[in-house]
Design a protein that fits this description.
Length: about 375
């Protein structure tokens, strides 16, 4: 086994990050690590300018019309909580799907448990896709929100968000999409699609550090704040400021994280989202075809295509997926994710809820040699012929 770890858990977080991301974080924060927007001196003004530039960059990247509606948060989970809890109230109904991560399922369950809301979860088909007409059928007169994952973190399927947005628009219901797996993988056009809000995280395919993310809202979307505190503006008012982005931001921002997120986005744009995606999906196709040829390997979901992000879910018949992950790590130096992937309803519907499954997820730094090493390891684990 080589000392180098073959890292195939990029759906959890990309690793390693581009070196220039770390370099810019250290250099910029070292000379500019003050509180942005909290003073009139030059350093504070420059720090605030950096934050504003990052908002502008993200608005452009996501096709959003107003950079002031880019709200920074700790991650996609944090952003989803901001949106869900700020958009619904007692007596409201929400539509979501059985593909969702717990970052959507648990806030909905919490609000229902308190007696505030009701919700319905639309199923996915045997290929891993949600039918927009199922969304339409689930919408009621008191539906105040539709929340849908853009790309499944278990099956890798990219949902037909444009069509779902059209359904929501026809019924006057805002659409929130979770782009934790899709941002940095597939183009996102919030304004062109008619999406009301997107939640994103910075530490996956946007190549930024952990602890970064945010919520991007359309100008006509009203979201009530759910936490309150200092914003650096309107300080004499006991009520939290109503203006965006401070409306949903309380306290000092994670400046070092925002610097890293900006640097990661720059790297992604320089390399080209389409170029990186083509590379990753070609490797994914090679990997899936190799896995499909092995005995005792069960693959879940549809083969990779345009409507997928680069991850594969599988199991080895007769072996617990946790054991497979432990063998891959201990004997082969290959890091993967096993278990339920924080999306229990997907595993319930796949029939893997009792044990979970093994997830391989590729990233910008994955090589052909990594894929071949993983295939050799899986061939030996599954009892197949050497590759």
């Amino acid at each position: 086994m080589s000392d180098r770890v073959i890292y195939l858990d990029n759906a959890a977080t990309t690793f390693p990050k581009p070196g220039r991301v770390f370099d810019r974080m250290v250099e910029t924060y070292g000379r500019l690590g003050v509180s942005p927007g909290r003073g009139s001196y030059d350093l504070a003004v420059e720090a605030e300018h950096l934050v504003a530039e990052t908002r502008l960059k993200l608005a452009s990247f996501f096709g959003a019309p107003d950079p002031d509606r880019v709200v920074f948060a700790s991650n996609a989970t944090d952003a989803l909580n901001l949106a869900i809890q700020g958009m619904v109230g007692p007596g409201d109904h929400v539509v979501s799907t059985r593909l969702e991560h717990n970052s959507v399922l648990r806030p909905l369950f919490h609000l229902r448990e308190r007696g505030w809301i009701e919700y319905d979860l639309v199923p996915f088909d045997n290929q891993g896709f949600v039918d927009p007409q199922e969304i339409a059928s689930a919408i009621r007169l008191n539906t105040r929100l539709v929340a849908v994952t853009h790309a499944s973190n278990v099956l890798g399927t990219v949902q037909p968000v444009r069509e779902i947005a059209r359904v929501c628009s026809e019924r006057g219901v805002p659409l929130l999409i979770d782009t934790a797996q899709s941002a940095g993988q597939v183009p996102i056009d919030m304004g062109g699609w008619g999406v009301s809000a997107i939640a994103f995280t910075g530490h996956k395919s946007l190549l930024g550090p952990t602890g970064t993310g945010g919520l991007v809202c359309s100008p006509d979307l009203r979201i009530e704040p759910t936490r309150f505190g200092g914003t650096g503006v309107d300080s004499q008012n006991p009520r939290h400021t109503a203006t965006f982005p401070h409306r949903l931001e309380a306290g000092t921002l994670n400046l070092m994280g925002i610097i890293g997120l900006s640097a990661g986005l720059d790297y992604l744009l320089e390399q080209g989202l389409a170029t990186l995606r083509l590379q990753e999906m070609a490797l994914l196709k090679r990997f899936r075809e190799g896995l499909a040829s092995l005995p005792r390997v069960t693959l879940y979901g549809s083969p990779p295509g345009d409507s997928h992000v680069p991850l594969i879910l599988c199991n080895v018949q007769g072996l617990n997926p946790t054991d497979v992950g432990t063998i891959l790590d201990g004997d082969y130096g290959i890091a993967v994710r096993t278990g339920l992937h924080c999306a229990p309803l997907v595993h319930t519907d796949l029939g893997t809820i009792s044990t979970g499954a093994v997830r391989f997820s590729l990233g910008y730094s994955t090589t052909e040699e990594d894929i071949d090493a993983a295939l050799r390891a899986m061939a030996e684990i599954s009892g197949g012929l050497s590759l």
